[in-house]
C-alpha cells in the first residue's frame, strides 16, 4: 500500500485526535507523545490486523466494540498501556505497529495516505474467496452501469444530431444490456 511520510502521519494523527475520542486516555497520551517525538513516529506503521505483529498496539474509539487498548508483543496480548509505552520508548529504533479501531478506518487511513501493508500477513490471507467474488461482481456491475451511461449519452447526441443510424445502434445495444443485466 503506502509508504507515508512523517508529515502525513503527523497530519493524520492530529486530525484523528481532533475528531475522535479514544476509550482510554492513555491511548491519547501515546498518540500525543508520538506527535512530539518524530524519531519514534518514523518507525510507527498504521496497519490492519495488528494482533498478527510482533510489536503493536490497538486503540479503539468510544462507540467501537473492540477492546479499548491492546498491546501485542511476541505472540502475547497485554492490556497495560504503560508496558507498551515503556517498550516503545526503550526500543525506539524498531518498527512498531498501530491499528486504530473506528468507523470506516480503512477508507480514512487510505485517504490520508497512511495505511501500510501488514508485513506479518500475506495478501492472499487478507481477502478470502467470498470477498474476492463480491468485489469481482461489483466491478462487473459498475462496468455495465458505466457502459449504459455512455450509451444514453450517445443516444442523446444522436437525437440532437438527427443521426438515425447511430440512434438505432446505441438503442439496440442499450436494450440488450438492460435485458441481459435486468437493470
Automatic annotation (TrEMBL):
Residues 8-107 form the UPF0302 domain. It comes from the Bacteria. It holds the Pfam family UPF0302. Belongs to the UPF0302 family. This is UPF0302 protein SAMN04488525_101370.
Amino acid at each position: 500500500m503506502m509508504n507515508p511520510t512523517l508529515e502525513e502521519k503527523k497530519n493524520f494523527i492530529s486530525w484523528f485526535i481532533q475528531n475522535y475520542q479514544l476509550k482510554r486516555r492513555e491511548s491519547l497520551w501515546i498518540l500525543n507523545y508520538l506527535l512530539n517525538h518524530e524519531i519514534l513516529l518514523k518507525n510507527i506503521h498504521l496497519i490492519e490486523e495488528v494482533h498478527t505483529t510482533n510489536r503493536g498496539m490497538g486503540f479503539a474509539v468510544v462507540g467501537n466494540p473492540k477492546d479499548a487498548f491492546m498491546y501485542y508483543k511476541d505472540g502475547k496480548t497485554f492490556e497495560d498501556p504503560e508496558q507498551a509505552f515503556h517498550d516503545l520508548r526503550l526500543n525506539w529504533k524498531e518498527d512498531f505497529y498501530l491499528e486504530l479501531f473506528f468507523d470506516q478506518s480503512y477508507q480514512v487511513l487510505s485517504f490520508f495516505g497512511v495505511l501500510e501493508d501488514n508485513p506479518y500477513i500475506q495478501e492472499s490471507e487478507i481477502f478470502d474467496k467470498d470477498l474476492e467474488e463480491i468485489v469481482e461482481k461489483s466491478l462487473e456491475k459498475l462496468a455495465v452501469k458505466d457502459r449504459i451511461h455512455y450509451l444514453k449519452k450517445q443516444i442523446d447526441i444522436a437525437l440532437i444530431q438527427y443521426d438515425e443510424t447511430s440512434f438505432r445502434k446505441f438503442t439496440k445495444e442499450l436494450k440488450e444490456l438492460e435485458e441481459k443485466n435486468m437493470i
